[in-house]
Amino acid sequence: MIRAPSLLCTAAAAVLLTWPWPARTADTGPQPAAMSFATLPAGLDPDAQAVRSGRFDAAFVPVPREALRLERGAARWYRLALTADWRAASAPVLVIRNVRFQPVTLYLPGDARGITRAHATARRDPRFSGRALVFELPRTLAAGAPLYLWLPAAAKTAPIRAAIYPVDDYHVRDLRWTRVMTFFEAVQFTMILVGLTLWLALRERLYGFFVGYLAPQFMYLLVSTGDLYLLPGAHWLQPLGIRLLWFVAALGTPFALSFIIEFCDLRLRVPRLARLLAWLRWPWALLTLTALLPAAWHADNSLQPDVGNALFLLCALAAVAAVALAWRRGSTAAGIFLLAWIPQSVFTALRAGQTLLGLPLPGWLEFGLPAALALSSLVLTLGLGLSTLQTRHERDRARAEAQRDALTGLPNRRALTARLAEALTDARQRHRPLSLIFLDLDHFKAINDRHGHLAGDACLRILAERVQSELRPADTLARWGGEEFVVLLPGAALDEAGAIGERIRHRVEADPFMAGGAAIAVTVSLGISGHRAPATDSPEQLIEQADAALYRAKAEGRNRLAVYPAYAASA
User: Fold this and answer.
1) Strands 561-563 and 524-531
2) Range from 102-106, 473-477, 532-536 carrying the lowest mean pLDDT
3) Does residue 491 surpass a pLDDT of 60?
4) Cα dist. 233→58, 129, 133, 260, 424 in Å?
5) Rounded to an integer, what distance in angstroms lies between the CA atom of residue 55 and that of residue 44?
């Protein structure tokens, strides 16, 4: 089912497909043999035996090659014949294109049984692709020998193409087509595997929607080329005919809408349009189910695609408006999606116009839609990668911010507790000392009362800078809370920790803080604790011991350093 027909699509297709493009000076592809064509009048459908016997030869009316077509609601007979005896080195083959899912029967001279070919079959001749229906003809085919072609009634009128080529030349053209289409299918399949891997690894529904969006597109491509029916177990899909194409087209749209909502962050950027797109998923779910109903339910097979086309047009307009608006409001993902979706939408619209207008299918359009689908899947996969990377960066930044003190930029209590646990484990395993300094800004409440809280905050920042300047590269300074700070000194015994503590005390006392336009004399009190093997103190115990030493320093008059007695004794 080609979707998104509209007046704009039809007009664009009419212009592009009927424009008098300059002919190429040389055509390197195989040229069809000269043929004559004739048809029985519309509504005349005699049995095959009567046609083969020649009883209706006089009723056949000559027509140009361009007049061959599937007729809506009526079967047609065509008579084809070479205008000259076949002289090529390889056998001739009759190639019928654009018949889609209609079975075609060919009656050769002297053959009463007829040969039927169909697109949706697992019994396709493996020597040819599903691009066209191919009938092998006898090497001795003479000029004027009639080839009778019977086309069944179709749901819509559509042109077909019939030509006779040397089989060797046609194999060359067919192989080129197969290589190109295989490449596009491989790109689609690879992107699906990437999305599936991400979904299985991360379990995020965005990647599930991505796979649900691409997989039906990939199936649509396989059904269109006929390759799906060659897969093991796919023969049971043959009776569905064109309804299988409707099914995969309808199935992919709800996933596409869900992917657009999640990927472009529409609920945040454009909540009303996001709700509209979410609601539009339900009619598509109904169309998906009705596509699988028996063929008799579909009457002339026109209701399903017509409703789907109209609904798709509504979804496309709403999605474009939502994504474009989200992009204008700062969504990078929305811009990526537009970049991926525009080529796909353009070629879908052109293909829809070509089908609705009954125009010939040019090669650039035949390959354009699969190429656009492959490009879209590739760009969206790259966009998913960028989105994942951005999400990871945001998560890492949030995690880092959660472990930082907003005022001083130092690690907070949570971060210090984790680092202390790691450092203590390392000290025990390597039999190394570890020391801890708990320091407190003296008379901090008086500073706030006298100079204001902004000056107090400035003092805390200055204190953090000065303490940090006296530490070693491996040391950690953290804000414990309020005016209290903790210094973690891995590998430092009591004597070295005491020396660092005294440097900090002198550095703070020697130079008044400039805060709020005033010079503020500041001092600190410090308490030291630590670990020496084979002690088994926990991180919490070390903190409590250093805190106890700090209170001792304050009790002894402040602006001094005190050591926890047990640590001093062990040293």
Assistant:
1) parallel
2) 532-536
3) yes
4) 47, 19, 22, 33, 62
5) 13
Q: What is the DSSP code string of 168-226? A: HHHHHHHHHHHHHHHHHHHHHHHHHHHHHHHHHHH--HHHHHHHHHHHHHHHHHHHHHT
- SS3 state of residue 469: helix
Q: Which two tokens stand for residue 497?
A: 């920790």
31-170 placed in CATH 2.60.40.2380: yes
3-state SS of 239-303 is: HHCHHHHHHHHHHHHHHHHHHHHHHCCHHHHCHHHHHHHHHHHHHHHHHHHHHCCCHHHHCCCCH
Per residue in 74-126, pLDDT (tens digit) is: 899 999 999 999 999 999 999 998 887 888 999 998 777 899 998 888 888 88
Instruction: Tell me what the mean pLDDT of segment 124-130 comes to.
Output: 87
Higher pLDDT pick, 35 / 246: 35
The model's pLDDT over 255-272, given as tens digits with 9 standing for 90+, comes to: 999 999 999 989 999 999
**Residue 165, strand partner residues:** 93
- Rounded distance between C-alpha atoms, residue 426 and residue 434, angstroms: 10
Residue 159 pLDDT > 90: no
The pLDDT of residue 15: 40
DSSP one-letter string for 511-550: S-EEETTEEE---EEEEEEEE-TT----HHHHHHHHHHHH
CA gap 563, 486 in Å, rounded: 14
Q: Quick: pLDDT tens for 193-212.
A: 998 998 998 888 889 999 99
Q: Is it true that domain 172-402 has CATH number 3.30.450? A: no
| Alpha-carbon distances of 172 from 88, 124, 128, 169, 362, rounded to whole Å | 15, 18, 11, 5, 18
What is the rounded CA–CA span in Å between residue 177 and residue 120? 18
Distance from C-alpha of 35 to C-alpha of 20, rounded to nearest angstrom: 25
Percent of the chain with pLDDT over 70: 91
Q: Which helix (H) or strand (E) holds 94?
A: strand 92-97
pLDDT digits (tens, 9 = 90+) for 275-317: 999 999 999 988 888 888 776 566 555 567 777 777 887 888 8
Question: What is the value of pTM for the model shown?
Answer: 0.67
Q: What number of other Cβ atoms are within 10 A of residue 523's Cβ?
A: 13
First to last CA, the chain: 84
Q: Can you tell me the distance from the alpha carbon of 382 to that of 194, in angstroms, rounded to the nearest whole number?
A: 10
Containing H/E element for 70? strand 69-70
Q: Return left, alpha or beta for 499; rule: phi > 0 is left, psi -120 to 50 is alpha, else beta.
A: alpha
Write down the H helix ranges in 101-160: none
Query: CA 504 to CA 435: how far, in whole Å?
Result: 15
* Tokens linked to 124: 């396709």
**Structural contact between residues 48 and 150, judged by C-beta atoms closer than 8 angstroms:** yes
The residue extents of the domains of the chain are: 31-170, 172-402, 413-570
- Long-range contacts of the stretch 196-205 (C-beta < 8 A, 24+): 198/384, 198/388, 202/388, 205/262
| 194 phi/psi in degrees, rounded to 5 | -60, -50
pLDDT number for residue 19:
41
* CATH for 413-570, options being 3.40.50.150, 2.170.130.30, 3.40.50.720, 3.30.70.270: 3.30.70.270
Q: Where are the beta strands (DSSP E) in 430-541?
A: 434-441, 476-481, 484-490, 513-515, 518-520, 524-531
Question: Does residue 21 surpass a pLDDT of 90?
Answer: no
